[in-house]
């Protein structure tokens, strides 16, 4: 989950003033977590506590009401009894990565991603964006190649992914919808050399920089398995005790599940 959080923080200052060159400062003054991080941790907390996603999203959004949410989501969590608003914005994809770390099969991951999107983003494209992102993270965790991940995205979700980062930069346009943002983010990952390179490509692309980097970072972490220690330390310093405590708890729970899974396999 650190990949998503670090991507969000790195992209936070570039959303309104896009990076002008590829060697931009990765964490300039003012870098901070935004709604992407808050809601990513909310989804993780829902999984850990066994409660429904709507309840967790509401609690976290109301606890951090000024994190930079879109207008539709702000109206949603401000209502007494909020209902899904048929959104296909990229909010469903930016918050979903914990699902891939918590479940054991691609079918479970795709179904849980749908559940995590539905409290707000119940439009088919909003659901698909969450499912595709979670599936990409899961496949990366399973050791699938970039070629296999790309083919799955194109065959299962009908995303047409650019053949190169240069093509992506030439054809992309600023937007906040799943059907544009998710393919952009996946391409930034697919065309990267390592975790940092993935973030730099996501942010240099321009547009909704924190969310593109959040989605890209979530897949890149799962694939490369190696995030520079200084990035993790920087992210932890930016989180408050409430958020950081839940991130660490989620990591510990996953370690325990992996150990138990290995133990069951050894017994067979």
Outline the secondary-structure elements.
Blueprint: H1 2-11, H2 35-49, H3 53-63, H4 71-78, H5 91-94, H6 97-102, H7 106-117, H8 124-141, H9 146-157, H10 165-171, H11 178-190, H12 195-204, H13 209-224, H14 229-238, H15 241-267
Helix pairs in contact: 1-12, 1-13, 1-14, 2-3, 2-15, 7-8, 8-9, 8-11, 8-13, 11-12, 11-13, 12-13
Give a structural overview.
The structure is a single chain. The chain is mainly alpha-helical and 268 residues long. The protein contains 15 helices and no strands. The protein has helices spanning 2-11, 35-49, 53-63, 71-78, 91-94, 97-102, 106-117, 124-141, 146-157, 165-171, 178-190, 195-204, 209-224, 229-238, 241-267. Helix 2 (35-49) crosses helix 3 (53-63), helix 7 (106-117) packs antiparallel against helix 8 and helix 8 (124-141) packs parallel to helix 13.
Give a quick summary of the entry.
The protein is an all-alpha fold and 268 residues long. 67% of the residues lie in helices and 0% in strands.
Main beta-sheet annotation: none
Number of strands: 0
- Mean pLDDT across all amino acids: 93
Rg from Cα:
17 Å
Succession of helices and strands: HHHHHHHHHHHHHHH
User: What would you call the quaternary organization?
Assistant: single chain
- Count of DSSP helices? 15
Structural class: mainly alpha
End-to-end CA span: 31 Å
What is the helix content?
55-70%
Shape: globular
Low-confidence stretches: none
